Every structure is written in structure tokens, then in C-alpha cells.
Amino acid sequence: MGNILTPTASTLKPRTSQKQRWRQWVAGYLMILPNLLGFLIFMLIPIISTVVLGFTKWDLVNIPQWVGIANYKNLFGDRIFWLSFKKTIWFTLLNVPIQSFLALLVAVLLNRKLRALNLFRTLFIIPWICMPVAVGLTWIWLFNTQFGYINHVLINLGLERIGWLTSGNLALYAVLFVNIWQYLGWHIILLLAGLQIVPQELYEAATVDGANNWINFWKITIPMISPIFFYDLVVNMIMTMQIFDLPFAMTNGGPGNATRVFNLYLYQKGFSFLQMGEACSMGVILFILIIIATFLLFRFLGSRVNYDMY
Amino acid sequence: MRNNFSYKRLLLYLLIIGILFLYLFPLLWQLSTSLKEGEEVFSGYNLIPKKLTWSNYEIAWSQFNVRKYLTNTIFVSGIIMLGTLICCSMAGYAFGQLQFPGRDFLFFFYLGTMMVPQAVTLIPSYYIILRLNLANTFSGLILPFFFGSAFGTFLLRQFYMTLSKDLFEAATIDGAGYFQIWWKIMFPLSKPAVATLGVMTLVSQWNSLLWPLVITQSPALKVLAVGLSDFRLFRNIQWNSLMAAVIISILPMLIILFSAQKFFVKGIQFSGMNR
Does domain A70-304 have CATH number 1.10.3720.10? Predict the structure, then answer.
């Protein structure tokens, strides 16, 4: 019959009989089945359930009680909810631009024919592959008021010790700093890929016309990389709004409520206070927030993206 | 002229190495602390320990239970990775090469859910596992992720779509089953994509905190992320042993990173450039 890759003499065209098509359908459904099953049970049904449960009061033990929009009303009257809401938005507003721009700068620096480029890239990713919990613990140690390395540097510079994680004012920024630090490599890799598809001729032509590096950066690099930079911003925003691991590991929401970000509060509402209904409402709110933020990004920045190269 | 060129290069390299040193300093500090003896940890700020000791690793390994946490993490992440690779490969192949009614609609549905935060699926998923009597078990840890994610299917579907149609047609001519075609031809060809997905899944599961936190209570089931997080609220932390535990939690991923660098890079690029 010949091997599977070479058509035998008896068939010159692929048979697309009804039976053949039918077999394809069956095969198709069967092959997506496990993946689809997981999707249905652990993605689709939970999404719908969360929306529904957002209208109930539920402590996991008893049957959920329908309470309409009472959860949402309660949340909007909850001081800590607003705190976590504002802190998360503020955190995201700071994290996304700072991290993405820093990553862009480093990516521009690395975007040359360096022999060790692969090694450099890999080294930058190392913090990203560490678990946030591990990173958090390390930075707790570094930020330690008495013995931490950071304060040691400050003392040597003649400044005073700072209670990075014990100060209500600073704790969020400490966590922000660690977050920027940990995921910087991820963004560097992404933006580097975007930089590397910018045609070299553009730079050469501009240099011939007398442009220097500064002009090149603003007139060529930024516009050419804008699609990928924009997507980086969007992805960054979506990931940052959901942040949990780092605040959990570093400060557990404290001191006070200083680092009680949205997802952390949601988790505590659900699993510490067993207010599952309200936790679900928060989940819905978070989802809506992300959609709105994505929409806003597209609306206000999307138009400034330059698609000439595509 | 040539001298200038190589001086600039040297400066550039030095700059990058300098930045890298600063950037990775916390990790070096981790390592350094983990090798120090108790008194030295609090008495000095030297990067290189005056007295090197491995005892912290022993303490972390046995006293802090890191050995159990490590084996649990390897087990859970490994199984999830295997399940994901098989299920997403099959689904990616079907979505990418086979025709069946509702295929594209279903796929766009998948895509839509990729934007949904984990918080939204968390509580009902927890309840489902609870009702299946799988809370606080390995199965409960593994099940929701075993069948693969939308991301994985997306990745593989994009890959399968790049394979030539002729290959597919030639394979179907001889009447071989579609599953066989996948298993014998397409799957072996998809090794780079599978490796990329494998690496991404492994990292994501190895570092995963929220789900294991919610599902496991017994110390015997804890994964590294959960086990380590217990330490964050301790008053008198033994920093050197804790840092040793931290290093142990990072080491396997570090090894995989250096052996499969390009797949990590591809995975990141795909995450950001796929829309």
C-alpha cells in the first residue's frame, strides 16, 4: 500500500466523500474532547457560576441565598473594598508604564549584534522563573529594617534606616518595586523581539541623512515598535490588575491595609471570612474593570499605534 | 578607527554586565545568605561568606520539610504538564487542521476566556473539587489544569496551521485514521511548539500559589509555593535556612531555563505577540 506519505497509484485526488467528512467530524470532536471538557468544567461553568453567585450570600456550608445586588451595595459601602480598588488601580498605573519603559530601554540596549545576547537574555529572565513567594521572602530579607541590605546601603550613604515594609506609606511602593524587578525580564524579551523585526535599513538611511541616536529612537524605533509595545502595555495591565502572589507573600495585605490589593482582598473575603458570594461579586467587578481598562487603552492609545510595517 | 570600535563594544559589554549584576544582586544575596553561618548573617554585609556552610540546606531539606514540598511540586507540575501537552496538542491539531461544524466558533470562545482573571473561576472550581471529595488531595491540585488551557490549545493550533496542507492531504489519502495521522506524523513534527508549551506550563505550575493555597491544608500535600509562604509571617526567621529553601525552590527551574533557553523566549514572545 505504500507508506503513509506517498499516495498510491490508485488514488489521484483526496476522497472527500460524505463518509470521509463524517469521519473527520468525529475525529475532530473526539480530539478536542479532553481539552473541551476541562474548559467546560473549570472555565465556562465557573464563569457563569461566579456571575450567578455574585447575587447570593454563601458561606460554603449552607445553600446560597439569593440577595440580588445586596453584595454589590455592601461592597460599594465597604471602606476596605475601595481601598483595595484604589490601591490596585494606582499600583497598575505605576507598574505598567514604568516597567514597560524600563524594559524598552534595556531592550534597546541589548538590540545589537552581541555575541552573548542569548546569555544576557536568559540572565534577565531568571527573576521571572522564580516563584513570587521565593522572591517575596528574599525581598523581605533585603528590605529588613534592621539587617536588610538596602538599609545597609542607605546607612553607608549617610541616610537613615527606612521601614520599607513596616511603613503604611511605603509598603505598597516596596511591593511595586519588587514586582517591576521580577517581571522586567519578561517584558525585555518581548520588546526585544519587537525591536529585532525593525528593518536595519531604516536606521541606516536615517543616519545617512544625519540623524543621531536620539532622533533615531524617537522617529524610528518608537513608531516601529508601537504595535508590540502597545500589546505589551495591554498584557501588562491585565496581569498587574490581578496581582496576588507578591503582596500575599511579602506583607499579606499589611501593614494595616497598605498592600491589600483587590485579588488579595477577594481571596480573604472568600477563604478567610467565608463570604463566598461577595468574593464572587468582586471577581465579576475585577473582570469588568479589566475589560474597561482594555477598552480605554485601545480607545486612547490604540490610535497612536503605527501599523506601517504591517 | 578600529580601536574606537572595540572600546565602544567593551564599554557596552561592561554596561550590560553592570546592569545585570545589579539586577541579579538579590539572587546573589540569596545564595550568599544561604551559605552563611548564623552569626554572620546578622553581623556583616559581605557578599562572599567568610565561612561557607551547607548546613542551612540540610536544615531546609529536613526540618523545613523542603524535601516533601519539592517532591510534591515536581509531581504535581510534571503531571499537569504531561496532561496539558497531550490534551492541547490533540485539540490544537483538531482546531488547526481538521474540519468540523462549530470549530471556529468554539475556538473564538476559547480565545475570549483567555482574558478572564483567575479570580472569576476560583470559587466555583473550588466548590466543584470540594463536592468531588477531592479537596486536600493531589487529584484536586491537578485536575483543573490537567486537561490543558486555552492558551496551550491556541499555541498549538497556530503551529499546526503552519504545517503544509499537502502533508495533511497526502496523509489522508491512504485512509489512515485522523488520530493516527496526528500521532505518527503531526505530533512528532510539533516538537518545538510542544517544548515551548511544556516549558511555559511547567513554570506557571511550579510557581503557582493561589490554587494550591486554596486546595491543600495538610503539610504532606503542600507544594513549594505554599510551604514557603508559611514562613512569611514568622517572627524570628532563620534567614540563612530560609534562603536555602528559597534556592532549592528555584534551582530546578533554573536548570531547565539554561537547558531550554530558546523555548522560554519563544513562549514569552508568543504570549505577547499572538493577538
Answer: yes
